[in-house]
Amino acid sequence: MTATPIPRTLAMTLYGDLDLSVIDELPPGRLPVRTLVLTAAQRQRAYDLIHREVARGHQAYIVYPLIETSEQLDLEAAVAAMQRLQRDVFPAYRLGLLHGRLPPEEKEAVMQAFKARQLDILVSTTVVEVGIDVPNATVMVIENAERFGLAQLHQLRGRVGRGAAQAFCVLVAGNALSREGRQRLRVLQESTDGFYVAEQDLRLRGPGELLGTKQAGLPELKVGSLLRHGALLEQARQAAFALLEADPQLQAHQTLLAAAQQRWGERLALATVG
Fold first, then answer.
1. Are 158 and 150 in contact (CB under 8 A)?
2. Do β-strands 168-173 and 95-98 pair in parallel, antiparallel, or remain unpaired?
3. How many helices and strands, by DSSP H and E, does the chain display?
4. How far out from the chain centre does Cα 77 lie?
5. How far is CA 74 from the centre of its chain?
6. CA distance readout (Å), 199 to 7, 126, 188, 247
């Protein structure tokens, strides 16, 4: 079970290795999260949104990809950002800092303080990606959003919109935004549907190996597309199951068995791992 199907999981589902159940609607009383993509030069719009929502009694997350500043990467880290935001941008608000290097008891204390509304803004790394439920939080600002994968961005966006109020996710792109990075951010702006996000992730970076360990890359299909030929894949799946039910050891289909062994080799053993 996964809340955000990654391409490999989706591909395995399409091949028939996993069953698929789709929850295609929000819980009662929730609204879709509005997603906005900004450049670094437009960051003030994100801050204005936070000011507005906190003034209404709500809370906000600001997520950074790093804990401490890196000399190799032109990225503002969470620790330095926390100090700058408290001093220059949100001096009247209560800010907290959360990252993976904090002792467990300190992390828990910060999360509980945010949930109890003792903090207005939580500055964090991706440690908030899962497991945090604060219905009063209505703004998620993700800095250098192009550095995150689609599944991770979708998970982070899912930290807001958990109450009845309208929620917002602001993706702030860095200056070195590639074409693929721009495509990923556009996908998030287009839809809040996790399966649509996963399909686009599959299209952009490939499913990797179904019998192997690679999590991304072009598929090994000679003919066909996992996204465009779903009906044919389902027919092939049913035909394969019927053949194996009638001839589990492929004793009457030695040519097919030899072709599978030649093509997949030792990786066929991975199909038996459960």
1. no
2. unpaired
3. 9, 6
4. 21
5. 23
6. 7, 23, 12, 34
| φ/ψ (deg, to 5) at 35 | -110, 135
25-192 CATH pick, 3.40.50.2000, 3.40.50.300, 1.10.287.180, 3.30.930.10: 3.40.50.300
Helix (H) or strand (E) holding 80: helix 78-84
Residue pair 208/220 in contact (Cβ under 8 Å)? The answer is: no
Domain boundaries defined on the chain: 25-192, 230-272
Q: Is the pLDDT of residue 1 over 60?
A: no
Q: What is the per-residue pLDDT for 8?
A: 52
Rounded (5°) CA angle 228-234-238: 160
CA distance 11 to 161: 28
Q: What is the DSSP letter of 57?
A: T
What's the pTM? 0.71
CA angle centred on 84, ends 78 and 85, rounded to 5°: 85
When pLDDT is cut at 50, 70 and 90, the band that residue 183 belongs to is confident
Tokens 């982070």, residue located:
156
Show the tokens assigned to 62.
Answer: 């600001």
Position 216 scores a pLDDT of 47
